[in-house]
Amino acid sequence: xxxxxxSKESNFSQWYLDVIKAAQLxxxxxxxxxxxxxxxxxxxxxxxxxxxDRAFKETGHVNAYFPLLIPNSFMEREAEHVEGFxxxxxxxxxxxxxxxxxxxxxxxxxxxxxxxxxxxxxQSWRDLPILINQWCSVxxxxxxxxxxxxxxxxxxxxxxxxxxxxxxxxxxxxxMLDVYQRIMQEELALPVLYGEKSENERFxxxxxxxxxxxxxxxxxxxxxxxxxxxxxxxxxAFNISFQNKNGEMDFAWTTSWGVSTRLIGAxxxxxxxxxxxxxxxxxxxxxVVIIPISKDERKIxxxxxxxxxxxxxxxNSALNGLYAxxxxxxxxxxxxxxxxxxxxxxxxxIELGEGEYDARKFTVVRRDTSEKERISVEAIADRVxxxxxxxxxxLYYKARTFRDDNTHDVLSLGELKEFFAKDSSKGGxxxxxxxxSSDDERDIKDITGGATxxxxxxxDDTRGPCIYTGHPDARRVIFAKAY
Amino acid sequence: xxxxxxSKESNFSQWYLDVIKAAQLxxxxxxxxxxxxxxxxxxxxxxxxxxxDRAFKETGHVNAYFPLLIPNSFMEREAEHVEGFxxxxxxxxxxxxxxxxxxxxxxxxxxxxxxxxxxxxxQSWRDLPILINQWCSVxxxxxxxxxxxxxxxxxxxxxxxxxxxxxxxxxxxxxMLDVYQRIMQEELALPVLYGEKSENERFxxxxxxxxxxxxxxxxxxxxxxxxxxxxxxxxxAFNISFQNKNGEMDFAWTTSWGVSTRLIGAxxxxxxxxxxxxxxxxxxxxxVVIIPISKDERKIxxxxxxxxxxxxxxxNSALNGLYAxxxxxxxxxxxxxxxxxxxxxxxxxIELGEGEYDARKFTVVRRDTSEKERISVEAIADRVxxxxxxxxxxLYYKARTFRDDNTHDVLSLGELKEFFAKDSSKGGxxxxxxxxSSDDERDIKDITGGATxxxxxxxDDTRGPCIYTGHPDARRVIFAKAY
Lengths: 483, 483
Hints:
The structure is a homodimer. Chain A is an alpha+beta fold. Helix content of chain A is 36%, strand content 27%.
């Protein structure tokens, strides 16, 4: 076990921060609640961006860029929206050496300013749908910051679409929820439940909010992505109106959806272990590291390093990208070099010592299970490809098993209270029938010491008696404590 | 000539704005001096990002993200830096519903906050060099905004590196200047001169600034990218110190370098014509458009569209990306559909009418010269590839010829005055020997009605008598009026 990392079991919060520090993923910035995403962390974000961006484009979306600053008056046009976001806003009052006539807020999200622009771009049904996404940072002032999970500034994407019919906007909302779920599962190895949010957890200004919910290593839920059906609320507030096919004026139907650098937090709290980061191969910036080892400088330069670089080129060609690296930190002890990459979550390590060189067989170690095997030069590219796939599958399988093992049906309020009690052997996701009000949900939060409805799974249409009201025809929901 | 575009010759400024509007590249935002980069413009920016990002990574750089907000006190630590940037800063005074103890500025550039972080990451020479780049937006309040050229917020990349020796930092400064020059030439078809800036035009806080300078269609210069040698100025201000190989403490040597969405302005003012945008194929988001034309709906669905989509797939495969599109705007007249893509700068248009379908030969039109030819189905992929290369080369050649035709040697102050006079038949780049002071340069600016030293070309070591002081051993510089 790593000396620089507190164990997961003894202190999950400290373990999380230690993993981030050991892998050099991020630091707190000299600005309250903000973070610096260091190259190791940003490399993961670039890969996350790439897989989502490709999926957005495949579903017909294009990228654009809207201004960072939003006139304060825009926020006020949608009553729920300003109530939800105003307390978190950072406000610009001076610029260019002068006091501004009207203050600007730094975007906490861009529905308002994008709504304003759409109103200028849309006249006829032919101008719809608009399917735009934006990659940027947003600012929401945080009182209790936590790297990647809650920071006053974070990186994200926000999709904003406008449609001529309610049905089309609803279909878009679900399509993007589905894209999120699929990418999280296939690329990030994160099993997620997806469903509708209760009124308490709805996006300010939305008619409905849907989310992907993942279970972290401490059995708490993390909201990993959201997709909002905004109805005509923002279209009315910003006058996104158009002439429909019948020549009548109508308001557009809009959606918005987003994922953020929070996903890096989800990756850590799902896959990392007491030695440090563990990355799913599909989004790991470095997938394989090759480590030449010898005390003989001549042998390193003349024999080991050329072979290591040869293997690196073979792997990069087989993996179709610059994913393999040769470690040349010869001033460090071999064990420290192994540990260096292990703590950074590199999925596969190849050790190339003098013995390995002479035998033309390498020691190959996988990060997730620590299993070692010896592979010949000829077989290495194929074997590493298979290993990477195995590791990806294994991480997903382990995470899903963990989640399923910690998901239980709960049939009464008493059981629910017990489920979330501090000394409970359970905890995790409680599946229960519920049809209570927002106040009832808040009461449950008090009773359980913090559990809320994470979502009402959309693919679960079973019904039963509400654990709170006893109403016989309640929907099934997931209760959990959440980040 | 396009009715919605003022001619270049009659009003260059209005022409520029008309081209942007016709191609839907950008709009002014509802925030003073800020812009919205619309999908057509952002697609160009994504391609510009891709070619530069690849070159940065090939030269060993990695990406990271630093906070948007910078404590005001950080700006004040470097005297020249604060003097240069403070008047342009946007200031956050309130956040989270409270007045801040210390105001933050929105980054106008990130040397200060990055310097602060580097001071924490660097202890020994082994921690150097640090080679980091950041893609983000910055805010510099503009009194006279102009889309892409001068906006209060713009998108850019800022590279920030730290080195253990002066020589290495200088080599980095020149390496990045060279990368800029090469990418602008090869990918953006922009011929650029590169050289050192005079003291008047130096980055606030730099020891030396180098730039790439391009000539626009109105013969004015545009600074297209800059690379700064920062000496130890920021390292001293932020205490980026390290133990060198001899065990002594030393300050690091730093550089910074950037290009921005201004490059889109450069593309327009270099390549566009009186019909609208013309894009170099290598950075055009859509490189080929195929336009099926018939009044017979059945023929379109059963014959023309399937063939068009077949050609599209062939082209995408040959071009190795999703670069070809089929136009399905059948509600528009053919001429309007041609014009639609022409104004957006699509390099190659393929017309597929009933005659073309029957003959299995298409009319292929290139955007830059309007030349038409008929190409058979079998030959189309190869021919389009060649055409795209020809267009790219032709755009570069035309731009270089224009620049060279408008670059002249000027041997005296009188000649220089005449060169830049309003009724001059010349104008453009004036190559002259100059060794005067900053005040002398300002005097020349007054005399010529605005011409300044754009750069002192680094590959020009000829010497001659200064046009201002008469000093016999002056360096050669380029004078021009500039954006």
